[in-house]
Structures are given as structure tokens and as C-alpha cells.
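Students often ask what a holo structure prediction actually looks like on paper. The answer is less mysterious than it sounds. You provide the chain, you provide the ligand, and the output is a string of C-alpha cells encoding the 3D arrangement of the protein together with magnesium ion.
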Amino acid sequence: MIEPIGLNQKMLEVRALADGKGFSSDPARIWEMLALIHTEVSEATDAYKKGESFDHVGEELIDAIIRILHLCSALDLDAEALFEAKMSRNWERPYKYNTVRGG
Ligand SMILES: [Mg+2]
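The corresponding C-alpha cells follow.
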């Protein structure tokens, strides 16, 4: 049972929307769902490149988050626990970890 707190609340909300609007969360769609996350990031990139408003860029980024949370739900992941664990690990890393160029 995934505790409905933090990021899990949003994941459950996204799942309810996906179910309510007829979008499958079947494991057979995992590859498709991964690809669709890329499309939303590409849409954000394109909007930024074309000088569109930051609100529009942000809307596409939120689309990506929605698709990521839908995939997390389809994989039956505890998004909140994973987020907290990963953030803790990242805070323990050194300044500009794994960065030689850019970043
Ligand atoms: Mg979009």
C-alpha cells in the first residue's frame, strides 16, 4: 500500500485522471509511456527555443511530470519514498559532483 503523502498524492491524482479519461496503465505500455515523457520535454525545449512564454514552457514541463507520475503509478512505485531517498543521496554528494564541463 502506497502511503498517500507528498509526491504520492500527485501520483494518485494523475492515475485517477488517466483511468478516468481512458488512458491505460498496462505494463505493455511502459515503452510508450517512456517515449511520451520525451515528447513533453521536447515540447518544452521547442517552446523555449521559439521564445514562447515561460508559462508555456512550464506547462510542457508539467506535462512531463504528469507523464512521469503516471509511469511511476503503472510501475507501482512509491514516488515519495524514492524522491526522498534520492534527494538525501544527492545532498550527501560533493559540490558539483560528476561535473567536469557544463552543469
Ligand atoms: Mg505537452
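The domain at 7-92 is CATH 1.10.287 (Helix Hairpins).
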